Give the backbone structure.
Amino acid sequence: MARHLTTTADFSTAEIEAVFERARLYTGDQTSQDLRGRLVINIFFENSTRTRSSFEVAARRLGAEVVSLDVATSSEAKGETLHDTAANLDAMGASAIVVRHKNAGVPKILSQSVSASVVNGGDGAHAHPTQALLDLFTLQEALGDVQGKKIAIVGDIKSSRVAGSNIELLRRFGMEVILVAPPHFLPKRRDIATSWDLKATAQEVDAIMALRTQTERHKSPLYASLADYATDFKVTQEILGDRDVVVLHPGPVHRNVDLDDAVLSDARCLVLKQVRNGVAVRMALLHKLILG
Ligand code: NCD
């Protein structure tokens, strides 16, 4: 039975630690032929630059063949059901299928009808497990053991699959998570600390994860303007002060809305490290799913 990664909860803590151990072997751009002759299919029903290219680079660095389906021209537009699309991909002998879809639950459904390993590349506002894994990996690299460390997740948390996956994963590894957002961007859950005061919260955390305002997921504009939102929730150098704190963002960054220019070029900002580590973590993940 193929293993899948549809949410972070699909992997035990020990399994994640093993994936990270392998990922550390890949952080220097190493290549191998471990997946030679294997086929990895990326099927992205929603646009993506970094996640899709990261999976492509990861699969190629392990010697696999990669096919990325152009969804604008794919058969979904022609009315083919998801099930038939999956059956066709499977019949091509794929070892892994990476799927991104605007609807929550699509990777899970797909995983039930194919023999390849299915990886969730982001489904609706639900989950983005590989992003959370690379974020945790990057936090461990920067902070050492993350147990007992505090992180503020800032921004449009309710619409963010990145936040959803990180909340599960970071808390499982012992981090204290504080959600910082205006009330209408906060999820309705009582088991987690929240704040509307970024400046005050920033003084007590070891890490800040800023998120993009997901304007495309809002049914009506939720903030008067992005500029108003930025006044209260943009991470600036002034907010960081001279504190020993790291800043993450899954990208794409809304410059001067989520993070200001000065933070993006500050040494405490790990955005490009996240991108780099993303390839290594996805290599280790494909290795685990395909070779066991
Ligand atoms: C995120 C996504 O698509 O979920 N980006 C990413 O995968 N790196 C976040 C976003 O779109 O804002």
Summary: The two ends are 11 Å apart (CA to CA). The pocket of N-carbamoyl-L-aspartate is lined by residues 50-51, 122, 128, 131, 161-162, 212, 250-251 (CB under 6 Å). The chain has a mean pLDDT of 93.
